[in-house]
Specification:
CATH class: Alpha Beta
Structural class: alpha/beta
Strand content: 15-25%
Distance between the termini: 33 Å
CATH topology: Rossmann fold
Number of domains: 1
Shape: globular
Strand order of the largest sheet: 3-2-1-4-5-6-7
Length: 247
Amino acid sequence: MQILTPSTKKQTIIVTGAAGGMGRECCRYFCELGWHVLAIDHNKQRLESLSVFTDIETLCIELDSVRLVAAVDKLLDDMPPLWGLVNLAGISRGDSIENLSEEDWQMSFDVNVTPAFRLIKGLYERMHRDSQGGSIINVSSPVAYIGARKPSYSASKAAIHGLTTSCARNLGKYNIRVNLLLPGTTITEMTSDWSEERQQAIAAETLLQRLCTPQEIAESIGFLLSEHSRYMTGSILDMTCGGMWGH
């Protein structure tokens, strides 16, 4: 079921982490909505699977590269006006605090936080110039609130929250909205490797007794990108389905 109606105005949406399960579905769904998509990821093989869509262009690059913003900026010169940025990319690196290395701590922030900061800082002026506004969605995790076995992961996801609310304050005067999506456990390649018992145990912690689907994530992000959420900024869209309540 398509919740939003296709846009009559051709605009560009950037998606990082586009080769993952949630990212690919976001790219596909955004094309259905009439948007042009710049899909960014470091996984060349999975990224190439998006080439079947005529409205998707891809950029294969490591997210922690200092060339990221310049590479994106160059591609945007030949694309429709920039409207949206979805910072979906993330990694889970590290160990418990007793065994956590400096390298894994730094890498978690280099991939989970710094690219979002660089892209927001590097692109907000273009977004304002091209579209007289825009919508930015940062994707966090429930572990930002409840903690995790890996402090590096939970701390980096908590940093995304602070980045979101601060940028919402900074960019409101440009009519650029910045919101946070808090996804629950979603059925992707990662969860498909889990045992049936583990999936059922996690699903049982939610109020609907099931895991989230990539389509539901894409539809929620589509809502935050659209004019239907035009008075939402600095907000958190909680899609954990009550999964945090029992912790």
